[in-house]
Write a structure and sequence with these properties.
mainly alpha; single chain; 3 helices; 2 domains
Length: 84
């Protein structure tokens, strides 16, 4: 989607006024808010990618639990209860 904000210089208008008018036009069109919203946009992951990642995390968690039970690694001690 593209929205253009265009202004034409009037007779006797200073450049400062022209820039001010352009800024007002851009703000009125909502372009700045839209660009700030898109700034950190990341595409949603596909269901297959999400599922593979979840399975990988579950497998890794099971391996760590098994190693803790066997005494091969020391269980990490948290810093306290988590806040929500």
């Amino acid at each position: 989607m593209s929205t253009n904000a265009e202004v034409v210089k009037n007779d006797g208008e200073t450049t400062v006024n022209l820039i001010r008018r352009f800024s007002k036009r851009v703000q009125g069109a909502g372009l700045i808010q839209e660009m700030r919203g898109r700034r950190y946009y990341s595409r949603a992951k596909s269901p297959l990618v999400t599922r593979k990642r979840a399975l990988k995390v579950i497998k890794k968690r099971e391996e760590i639990t098994e190693l803790i039970k066997l005494g091969k690694i020391v269980e990490r001690v948290g810093r306290g209860p988590r806040r929500r």
